[in-house]
Structures are given as C-alpha cells and as structure tokens.
Specification:
With about 120 residues, the chain is α/β, with parallel strands linked by helices. The chain is built from five helices and three strands, in the order βαβαβααα. About 40% of the residues lie in helices and about 15% in strands. Helix 1 links the parallel strand 1 and strand 2.
Length: about 120
Amino acid sequence: MYNKRIAFLMSYQHLIPHGGIGQFALSFVRLMKENNVKVDIVTDKFDKPTEFTKTLINEGARFIYTDNPLPYTKHQGIFMYGDSYCIKDSTGLSSGFATNSGRIAGKNALIFLGK
C-alpha cells in the first residue's frame, strides 16, 4: 500500500523510451515509488501496451485514459493558439482528477512529499 497518490498528466505520444518527457516520467515514477507514492499517468489515449509502458507499469504506475480519444490531427487545432484542453468531455482526464483529488505532478512534487 502507498502513502500518497499523485497524477502525472502527459500525452501518449511522449511515452517513448529515448530521452525527453518519457524518460522524465520513468524517473519520476521510480522516485515516487521510493517514497511510497502511487503515480497515475493520465494520458490522452492508450493504443496498446509497449515495452516502455510495461516498464512504467512494472515500476508501479497506473494509466488512466479516455474512452473516446481525440485524434492528434484535432489536437493541433486545440493547441495552435494556446495551451489548453477542455476536460469536460474527456473521461480519462476527469477520472484522473477525481482519483487524485486535484493533486497533479509538477514543480511542487517534493513539497507534496514533504521534502
């Protein structure tokens, strides 16, 4: 059992093993595991398990994703003029926020851990 739970919000397209956001996510999951914190990776879709997503799951992460994913072609229109996304119609994001009561990973993660 874990002491705390935190959501890590990221796009599925970044769940790749070589560098960048995917490697940061894996490092973050491992750090949280050492501190007895459960990480829910809230993502925009989940096509199929890959070796990398299996590694994240084996390290203790759980994936939360929408039942009705938005194609990336429509993402471009959403993010073209700003960095916002309507979560009203996204069951994955809504579920992630509900499960984590608004605790989202970010720059204050160590404060969240009490470090």
